[in-house]
Amino acid sequence: MDVLQRTKGDKVIWTIVIFLSLVSLLAVYSATGSLAYREQGGHTEYYLFKQLSVLGMGLLIIYFAHRVNYTIYSRAAQIGFIISIPLLIYTLAFGHSLNDASRWIRLPVINLTFQTSDVAKLAIFMYVSRQLSRRQHIITDFKKGFLPIIIPVAIVCALIMPANMSTALLLGASCMILCFIGRVPVRFLASMVIAGMVMILLIIGIAVATGNPMRLETWKKRVEHFVSTDKDELPYQVQQANIAIAGGGVIGKGPGNSTQRNFLPHAYSDYIYATIIEEYGIFGAFLILMAYMLLLLRSIRIYRKCPYAFGAFLAVGLSVTLAIQALTNMAVNVGLFPVTGVTLPLVSMGGSSVIFTSLAIGIILSVSRNVEDLEGKRIEQERIAKVMEQNGMQPAA
């Protein structure tokens, strides 16, 4: 009971978190039934309990993160950015390879893997929010206002890009939106786009010149398959996702009745949205979409009410990146974007992704809690002033 009383922040966002967590449990349990039976000796609930433990840890992280005064995250932003640089470099050199990409670090003692890009994304958003809030008076100055903000973003994106171009592009786009909200001139943002294109060409050129194609062939094939008009040339996972979506119809086949989960690669992570559509139909897909849009709208509401620039930028920046990631995953699942390795936040099965998403939501709720406290104090002061006025008393000078 004491925990519930100490739980503050936007109640709608808390409701969205609970809703997405329940959806995650249902979808992961359905999508991993056959996998668990094959790999865990018939224990079909193995991945369900694993996801339940991760989501439980995520809820604890959200709770403790939202109890922290968000101004502390401003001081942690610089430390997080400094730590993320060597982590990304280490991942490129020695990271655990998955799908021909070095994206993971394996911790030797506890044998746990996590994506260093998740650490970098959270750190860079806090860092950019801090810099935007501190440089509002000189934000139109390219050298003093814009460069100190954009150079760290460029460094992080450049280190993520060789192993995970989709994440780097989404991170760059999210930072650009945050800079736009932070009143950075449009001409500076245009230069940011041009610099990003040059960076991509430079990385591709280095890969070709050194004879180390990295993921160049994978990027090329994904773009070719996306623009191809030949249905037979579609990647296997895209074909299976299309079959799942077509079979879902309006109301779906019902919970646990997906057939494509047995054929669709990564039906529990990258393509979990297609699995949800097959089981819950367009109606279920719409509810998931609305949940992320509502999260964004509530965060914008926090942004508008927060009196301090850092908190406002932090809330809207983190919500924008979560919404963009969710929309990208959905677009890939329904064939509107080329294939990427982007997961559906708080829904896809995973460890580090859920943990860092939970931390981001906890920070948003921390800002919301501060806004509620300030609003409560203002209302109380107005009530006291009104009572004193009614009693013919003058407020103290």
Automatic annotation (TrEMBL):
Subcellular location(s) per record: Membrane
Family matches, as InterPro entries: FtsW/RodA
EC number: 2.4.99.28
Pfam family name, one: FTSW_RODA_SPOVE
Origin: domain of life: Bacteria
Record keywords, A-Z: Cell shape, Glycosyltransferase, Membrane, Peptidoglycan synthesis, Transferase, Transmembrane, Transmembrane helix
Main location: membrane
Keyword flag NAD: no
Coiled coil (UniProt feature): none
Record-stated family: Belongs to the SEDS family. FtsW subfamily.
Protein name (record): Probable peptidoglycan glycosyltransferase FtsW
Originating organism: Chitinophaga pinensis (strain ATCC 43595 / DSM 2588 / LMG 13176 / NBRC 15968 / NCIMB 11800 / UQM 2034)
